[in-house]
Each structure stands twice: as C-alpha cells, then as structure tokens.
TrEMBL record:
Name of the protein described by the UniProt record: Probable alpha-L-glutamate ligase
GO cellular component, one term: cytoplasm
Protein family membership: Belongs to the RimK family.
Keyword Ligase: yes
Residues binding ATP: K141, E178, Y179, D187, R211, S212, N213
PANTHER family: RIBOSOMAL PROTEIN BS6--L-GLUTAMATE LIGASE, RIBOSOMAL PROTEIN S6 MODIFICATION PROTEIN
UniProt-listed GO biological process terms: SOS response; translation
Keywords: ATP-binding, Ligase, Magnesium, Manganese, Metal-binding, Nucleotide-binding, Protein biosynthesis
Native organism: Pseudomonas marincola
Positions of Mg(2+) 2 binding: E260, N262
Length: 301
C-alpha cells in the first residue's frame, strides 16, 4: 500500500515508528507536513498539492494531527477522504474528539461512566455550579489545556470560586469536575485499535501531585485491566467513531470513569512501557481495513 502519514515532524517518535513499521511490512510510507499541504477545494476532481506537485495514488492516510493544528489538519484529512483515501481515523471523528464538552456529552448519552462534570459561562452561576459537582475538593480544567497544564485541584469551595472567577475573567472556557480521590493520582491509558484494547499502561503522578501526565513527572508501568475497563475503553472509542484511540480512565469506587478520548495517541510511552509493537498493529489494521473508496463519510459530516 502507499500510505501517507500526516505529521508536522518526521523525527517525532510516533511518526518515525509508523514509517518504520510500514516500511518493514512492505509499504511505501510518505510523511506529509500537514501545514505544507494545500488544495483546490472548488475543483470537481479533489486534489492535494505538496511542494508543487499533486499527491496521487495513496491507499490510506494516518493522521497525526496536533491539537494546535486541528482546524487545518482536519481540512487536509477531509480532502484525502474526498479523494477516496482511507483514513485511520476520520476527520469528523477527530474534530468531534477535540471538543472536550461535546465528547463528554456524547459519552454520557451512551451511558459511559464519567466524572460528574459541570460547565457554565456566567460568574453569577459559580456557587451553584460548584454544588452541581458535589462541592470541594474539585478539579477545574481549561478546555484547551493539554499535558495537564490548566488542570487545577481546589481543596475548598472558596479556592474553587476564586480560581473559576479568575479563569472566567481571562475569557478561558473551563469545566468543573468532581475529584476522584480514590484514583490515587493514577490513570489508565488504554490503547484501542479496531475495537480491541491492544495495550494498556498505568500512569502514576509523582508524590505530592495528582496529575499523572508523564510531562508532569508521572511514571508509567504495565497494568492488567479488568474486563469492565476493557469494555468501557472500547465503547468510548466506538461512540467517538475512532478506529484508533487512547482512552484515559480513572479507577473510581463505582467503576471506570472516562476522562478523555485521544484521537492521536502517542506511541512512545505505550510502546516502551508495554514492549508491544503498537505501530505494526496500526499498520496491520490498515492492511485489513484500508483501501481506496472505503471511507464511510468521504469528508461529509
Ligand atoms: P490533559 O488532557 O491536559 O492531560 P486531563 O484531564 O487528562 O488533562 O488531566 C490531567 C491529569 O489529572 C489526569 O491524567 C489525571 O491523573 C488527573 N485528573 C484529571 N481529572 C481528574 C479528576 N476528575 N479526578 C482525579 N484526577 C484527575
């Protein structure tokens, strides 16, 4: 197959591993810098140009679209879909997953366990918003945050009120969430490929920290997940319409709670922790399911 990897940087671990695994399995792998792809959207025959030439003959495309380039990246991916190229994850699913509130609303509609979460716009509604999530301690999250930045634990309601007011005055959209204390500063990353959890790891926050992000000093280890956790991760990816997803779970007293569904999950942490060849599993998924004109939406949606 001829497979495009949409990525800003060929040297990133995930991009490198996907190219390596694809090449090993006999495919032609081409890394395309998402922001350097350009297109004529009014043409009858959709095309993408890259460094002065049209991109042609691709069977599949692997989007590795960073949060900061979601808008343009999804447009490029959509153009590939209009050309009949099979996407590992479809543009509509990626765009959906990047909207944190919309994602939680979709997941809750399907009865998937979530931490109690509130969202408001006006400072006048803060006291009731705090009561909605059962008071302090609670977690406040900036909607656009990544890698744990903008995630704040407030031990008291007074502190929560002040922090929410501060974010609102800075015009930052936030959500307020019950604090799952019993998770003990740990979360579980389930790596889903085609309705299977193919690898899972536990991330533990460093002492004195509740955020388990590796970027915040957390450490990763192997974990055996329960059948309920497995089922929850698979269902969450499916509700979001993602073939490949990193589903983050918190272990609560009343079962697994989904924190986030990531549409471009990184490979480095999961491969080094579990010793699994995740990149190769992704390529095998494309071999089995990819091919021209097999995309479900062809960019509609
Ligand atoms: P980001 O997307 O920036 O990584 P997350 O929402 O994943 O932000 O939060 C970062 C970390 O904080 C999580 O990995 C988890 O360890 C911890 N955390 C987030 N929300 C909660 C919560 N409601 N209860 C307990 N811990 C949480």
């Amino acid at each position: 197959m001829k497979i495009a990897v949409l990525s800003r940087n060929p040297r990133l671990y995930s991009t490198r591993r996907l190219v390596e695994a694809g090449t090993e399995r006999g495919h032609e792998m081409v890394v395309i810098d998402t922001l350097r792809a350009y297109m004529n959207i009014a043409s009858h025959k959709p095309q993408i140009h890259y460094r002065g030439r049209p991109l042609e003959g691709f069977d599949a495309v692997i989007p590795r679209i960073g949060a900061s380039v979601t808008f343009y990246g999804c447009a490029v991916l959509r153009q590939f879909e209009m050309m009949g190229v099979f996407p590992l994850n479809e543009s509509v699913a990626i765009a959906r997953s990047r909207d944190k509130l919309r994602s939680l609303q979709l997941l809750s509609r399907r009865g998937i366990g979530l931490p109690v979460t509130g969202f408001a716009h006006s400072p006048d509604d803060i006291p009731d918003l705090i009561q909605m999530v059962n008071g302090a301690p609670l977690v406040i999250k900036v909607l656009e945050g990544t890698q744990g930045i903008g995630v704040v634990l407030c031990e008291t309601e007074k502190a929560a009120e002040s922090v929410i007011e501060a974010f609102m005055s800075l015009k930052q959209d936030i959500m307020v969430q019950e604090y799952i204390k019993e998770a003990g500063g740990a979360d579980i990353r389930c790596f889903v490929v085609g309705e299977k959890v193919i690898a899972a790891m536990k991330r533990q926050a460093k002492p004195g920290e509740f955020r388990s992000n590796l970027h915040r000093g957390g450490s990763a280890s192997l974990i055996k997940i329960t059948p309920e956790e497995r089922m929850t991760a698979i269902r969450a990816a499916k509700v979001m319409g993602l073939h490949v997803a990193g589903v983050d779970l918190l272990r609560s007293n009343h079962g697994p709670l989904v924190m986030e569904v990531n549409s471009s999950p990184g490979l480095e942490g999961i491969e080094t922790t579990t010793n699994k060849d995740v990149a190769s599993i992704i390529i095998q998924y494309l071999e089995k399911n990819g091919g021209p004109n097999l995309t479900r939406t062809r960019g509609k949606g």
